[in-house]
Amino acid sequence: MTTAALIVAAGRGSRAARPGDPPKQYALLAGTPLLRRTIDAFVGHPDIDLVQVVIHPDDTDAYFASAPDTSRILPPVTGGATRQSSVLCGLEALAALPRDVRPERVLIHDAARPFVPDATITAVVRALDRAAGALAAVALSDTLKRASAGLHVAETIPRAGLWRAQTPQGFHLDAILAAHRKAATQGLDDFTDDAAIGEWAGLGVAIVEDSTRNLKITTIDDLEAAERLMTSRANMPPLLEPRIGTGFDVHRFTAGDHVWLCGVRIPHTHALDGHSDADVGLHALTDALLGAIGDGDIGQHFPPSDPKWKGAASHLFLADARRRVEERGGRIANVDVTLLCEAPRIGPHRVAMQQTIAEILGIDTARVGVKATTTEQLGFTGRREGIAAMANALVLLPI
Question: Which has the higher per-residue pLDDT, 21 or 112?
C-alpha cells in the first residue's frame, strides 16, 4: 500500500516566537529550519512514499527556502483558519492525486514534532494493517489533578489507562477524509486531534506506544530546550552496537614451495590451491567482517569467475572489508583467527601475522588473535591434504 505523510505547518506558532520572529516551524534548530527536520524524518523513512505539507498562505517563500528538493514531496497546499481545516485541505489534495499515485494510507503529523523516531513511524504504519486508525501516544506517568475555579485541587484522577496523544496519527485515506468532510459539513470544528474525529466517526483507533523524545515544540522554552538537545546530541559520541561475525575457509594443497597465511609468506613443501593467493586465514577473516555488517561474503564481492582476481593478494579482500565497515560508521574492536593444519608450524610466524593483520585493519596488534591447532591427524587437515581457518570479528556499528 502507498503511504503518505501529511505534515501540518499552517499555524502561526505565536507562543514559540518573539516579536519579529518567523513562525516556529521556520525557526532555526541547530542551524536548520524546524520544518525541514520534520520533513526529513518522513522523506527518509522507507515506509513513506509521499510527503504533503500544508502551509499558511503567507509562508510560501519560507517554505521553499526550507523544504528539501526531492520528488517524494508534493507541492505544498494552503491551509485553513484552524488545524482541523488545514488537515482537511491536505487530505483533499491527496485524494485528488491521479489514481496511480493516490495513497491508500496517510500519517498526519504536526510540523512542531521534529524528533519523531523512525520506530514510531514504522509502528503507526504497521498498526494500520489491523486497524482503521492508529495514533502515537505516551502512557501518563504523572498523577493528574482536577482544579477548582480557585485553583485548588478538586479531585485526583486515576491515571490507569490514560495516554497522552501525540502524532503521527495514521488512517486509511478514504475513511479519515470522509470523517473530516462529515465534521466540516456539520460545523464541528473543535476536535483537538484527528484521532478524535476518527473516534467520533466510528473508526477504531489503535494506540501505538511512542517515545517521550517525540516532543512538541509549543513555547519559546520548548524551542530553547530543543536547541540544547540538538547541541548535546551533536557533542555526544554515537551509540554503538556490537556485531559479531564468523568466517570459515578451506584450501587444498597443490604443488609449490610456499603458502600465504594471514598475509605472511611461509616456505613449505606445498602451496595452497586457489583463484587468488589462497590465503585461507585472510579469507576467513574477510568473511567474518562481512558477516558482522551483513554484507554478503568474499565470493560475492570477489567472485572466482572474475579473472581480475586471479592470483590476487588476499590483503586486498581484507582491506575492502575494512572499508565497508568504516563506510557504515563502524569500527573493528577485535579479530581472532584459528588455523587448522598439521604443517607448516605457525608459532614462529604468529607475531608477523598479527602485525600484518593489524596494519591492514588499522587496529592495534593487541586486538588481533592468531592461533593454530592440529586435528590430531584426523580429517583432511590431519592427512595433510590442505589447511582450514576459522575467524571471528567484533565490529561496533552506530545504532
Answer: 112
Cα–Cα dist 40/42, whole Å: 5
Q: Where along the chain do the CATH 3.30.1330.50 domains lie? A: 240-398
pLDDT tens, position by position, 250-299: 999 999 999 999 999 999 999 999 999 999 999 999 999 999 999 999 99
Residue 120, H or E segment: helix 118-127
Cell, residue 210: 511512542
Q: Does domain 240-398 have CATH number 2.70.70.10?
A: no
251 three-class SS: strand
Query: Which grid coordinates are listed for 232?
Result: 548535546
CATH H-level superfamily of 3-235: Spore Coat Polysaccharide Biosynthesis Protein SpsA; Chain A (3.90.550.10)
The phi and psi torsions of 42 (rounded to 5 degrees) equal -95, -40
The 3-state secondary structure of 195-225 reads HHHHHHCCCCEEEEECCCCCCCCCCHHHHHH
What burial class does residue 318 get, using C-beta atoms within 10 Å of its C-beta: 0-12 exposed, 13-18 middle, 19+ buried?
Answer: buried
CB atoms within 10 A of CB 121: 26
Within 8 A by CB and 6+ apart from 201, the residues are: 175, 178, 179, 182, 183
From-to residues of CATH 3.90.550.10 in the chain? 3-235
Distances (CA, A) of 343 to 94, 95, 383, 391, 396: 71, 73, 10, 19, 35
